[in-house]
């Protein structure tokens, strides 16, 4: 009986170690997705700002109209990327929670 208990304990230890590895991997994946989304948002903002400056320099007569158009585009891009980032974050969190739930490691008691 003690050999069976030992084997059961060993199996549980291996399972717990794997679950912790998967949990850490899910956390890293979620953080990576958030970082990439933030980088993409900054890049889009910078490109929009550069485009706005270039357009302003080339057409001083139409600067007011160009500025409004570029600002609107920047706001739309920022809103879209913010929503995308939030969606990625929520999907990663859902995957993380799903792994925890499937392994019986849910914090809720």
Name its key features:
single chain; 109 residues; 89% helix
Main sheet makeup: none
Number of strands: 0
Radius of gyration: 24 Å
Order of helices and strands: HH
Shape: rod-shaped
Mind explaining what this structure looks like?
- The mean pLDDT is 76.
- The protein is an all-alpha fold.
- The chain has helices spanning 2-58, 63-102.
- Helices cover 89% and strands 0% of the residues.
- The radius of gyration is 24 Å and the shape is rod-shaped.
Task: Give me the secondary-structure topology.
Blueprint: H1 2-58, H2 63-102
Helix pairs in contact: 1-2
Compact overview of the structure:
The protein has 109 residues and is mainly α. It has helices spanning 2-58, 63-102.
């Amino acid at each position: 009986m003690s050999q069976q208990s030992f084997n059961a304990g060993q199996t549980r230890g291996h399972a717990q170690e794997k679950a912790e590895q998967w949990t850490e991997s899910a956390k890293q994946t979620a953080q990576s997705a958030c970082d990439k989304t933030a980088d993409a948002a900054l890049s889009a903002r910078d490109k929009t700002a550069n485009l706005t400056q270039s357009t302003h320099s080339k057409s001083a007569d139409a600067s007011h109209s160009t500025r409004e158009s570029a600002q609107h585009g920047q706001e739309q891009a920022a809103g879209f990327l913010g929503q995308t980032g939030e969606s990625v974050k929520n999907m990663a969190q859902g995957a993380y929670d799903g792994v925890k739930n499937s392994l019986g490691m849910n914090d809720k008691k």
